[in-house]
């Protein structure tokens, strides 16, 4: 298939989904096709590992329900902090929630509850065993959410009789109002007559842009080195699993591909063990868990078999180079290393080498 030979830069120009286009550009800019599976026990560890490994990855995968101390505050909670780190280092957040229920339920699980996954996860995935309706429902939920967040709110605030306008994103409004009130109270104590939202005028948000110059000049420490990703949300369909004896047979996988083609504006691609692009027009992205490298000191080519709990491992060379997937997902291979940062670089380099040799 042509996507096996196409570079990420080339694919970013032609792919349908705006978030996939953004991701391909990130991959090209950072020379990385590595996703960290941040399976850690606490929110503190999660933010710390995201900050340390951020420079080497393009996707950070979470299982928010295994993290203790997750702060659900919509403004200052763990999701918001992760988003800030994602912006700082340039990666997307993928909540590996594997939704697997009737349409109505998955829609609510995606958008509501304490976690409000849709607010902080750019990407989620679905286990399509219950049928295609789960994909349709998640797509509809994302569409509704995007329609809201694609627009910034223009607010006029009347403080102490004078009127002033502000044009900020939804999320900044409250801070601004607070700042206004604080500033006014300091200057003219007790003189706030009213703080009234006068108008809500919807305007399209500014379109996103990735700037290579900014990236090259950046030391990796400053916030906002990368342009904001588009506000579109994306879905990966769980088409194949890495675990031994799983029940995802060919018929199921084919149905996943069919569903993906029916929802190209929402489905970015698959969590799978091989490339599933077969039609000439297919350009789905493939992310693959079950990846480990043999320890550095061992002979090259030594395989790491599994974890004794059903997980099966393959090397980046096998997954990206031979099976044709795009991004390798690595958890314990990096997390359990003495120096996770150094190990992330070793995985980045191996996965990138497999990719460059594939497209050569
Ligand atoms: F869909 C899948 C799959 O087929 N295999 C997986 O291992 C998801 N995973 C996840 O990837 C799993 O839930 C872990 O979060 C991660 C693999 O972690 P490891 O430590 O690299 O084995």
From TrEMBL:
Location of the active site: 96 (for ompdecase activity), 98 (for ompdecase activity), 101 (for ompdecase activity)
Claim: Lyase is one of the keywords in the record: yes
Record field: compositional bias (Acidic residues): 168-180
Enzyme Commission (EC) number: 4.1.1.23
Entry GO MF terms: orotidine-5'-phosphate decarboxylase activity
Pathway recorded for this protein: Pyrimidine metabolism; UMP biosynthesis via de novo pathway; UMP from orotate: step 2/2
Protein name, per record: Orotidine 5'-phosphate decarboxylase
């Amino acid at each position: 298939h042509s996507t096996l030979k196409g570079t990420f830069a080339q694919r970013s120009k032609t792919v349908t989904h705006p978030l996939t286009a953004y991701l391909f550009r990130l991959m090209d800019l950072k020379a990385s096709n590595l996703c960290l599976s941040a399976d850690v026990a606490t929110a503190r560890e999660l933010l710390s590992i995201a900050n340390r490994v951020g420079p080497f990855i393009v996707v950070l995968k979470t299982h928010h329900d295994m993290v203790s101390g997750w702060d659900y505050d919509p403004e200052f909670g763990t999701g918001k902090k992760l988003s800030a780190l994602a912006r700082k280092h340039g990666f997307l957040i993928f909540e590996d929630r594997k939704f697997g229920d009737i349409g109505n339920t998955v829609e609510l699980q995606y958008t509501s509850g304490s976690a409000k996954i849709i607010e902080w996860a750019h990407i989620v995935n679905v286990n399509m065993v219950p049928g295609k309706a789960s994909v349709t429902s998640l797509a509809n939920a994302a569409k509704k959410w995007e329609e809201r967040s694609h627009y910034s709110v223009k607010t006029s605030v009347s403080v102490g009789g004078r009127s002033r306008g502000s044009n900020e994103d939804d999320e900044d409004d409250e801070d601004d109002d607070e700042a206004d009130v604080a500033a006014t109270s300091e200057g003219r104590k007790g003189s706030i007559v009213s703080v009234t939202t006068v108008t809500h005028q919807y305007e399209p948000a500014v379109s996103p842009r990735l700037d290579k110059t900014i990236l090259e000049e950046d030391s990796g420490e400053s916030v906002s080195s990368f342009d904001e990703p588009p506000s579109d949300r994306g879905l990966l369909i769980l088409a194949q699993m890495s675990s031994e004896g799983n029940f995802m047979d060919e018929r199921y996988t084919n149905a996943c591909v069919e569903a993906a083609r029916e929802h190209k504006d929402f489905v970015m691609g698959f969590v799978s063990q091989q490339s599933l692009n077969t039609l000439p027009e297919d350009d789905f992205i493939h992310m693959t868990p079950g990846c480990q490298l043999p320890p550095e000191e061992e002979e090259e080519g030594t395989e790491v078999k599994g974890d004794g709990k059903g997980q099966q491992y393959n090397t980046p060379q096998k997954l990206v180079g031979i099976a044709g997937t795009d991004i390798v997902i690595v958890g314990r291979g990096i997390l359990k290393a003495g120096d996770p940062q150094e190990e992330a670089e070793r995985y980045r380099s191996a996965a990138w080498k497999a990719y460059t040799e594939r497209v050569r």
